[in-house]
Amino acid sequence: MSGYWVIRSSAVKDEAALKLYSELWGPIGERYGAEIIAGRGNISTREGSHYPRQMVVRFPSYEAAVNCYEDPDYQAALVPALKALDREFSILEG
């Protein structure tokens, strides 16, 4: 069964940090078979707090999604990510 990252975040606070995170994320995501399946289009919040940036990333399995997040390289990439954005992050099986 696939695994998914669901990420909701604030507006960008630090463009340089976001650029660095994006550069670091690419090879890590590729290693785990990640595919961004939503988040590059319009967002229409109907209930709850609005987050201007939202993304859904699919992995081949729930385990791959967890392992990617726990990967030491990804944990290092979180430093600029958390500088760039305030985020809410969940891993789902589905």
Rounded mean pLDDT score: 96
Distance between the termini: 6 Å
Widest beta sheet: strand line-up:
2-3-1-4
Q: Give the helix tally.
A: 3
DSSP strand count: 4
- The percent of residues in helical segments reads 40-55%
The parts where pLDDT drops under 50 for at least 5 residues are none
Q: Structural class of the secondary elements? A: alpha+beta
The helix-strand sequence is EHEEHHE
Spatial extent as radius of gyration: 13 Å
Taking the sheet with the most strands, its summary is: 4 strands, antiparallel
Strand composition percent: 25-35%
Can you put this structure into words, describing what you see?
The protein is an alpha+beta fold and 94 residues long. It is built from three helices and four strands. The protein has a four-stranded antiparallel sheet, with helices on one face. Helix 1 runs antiparallel to helix 3 (72-84). The longest helix is centred in the first third of the chain and has 17 residues, at 15-31.
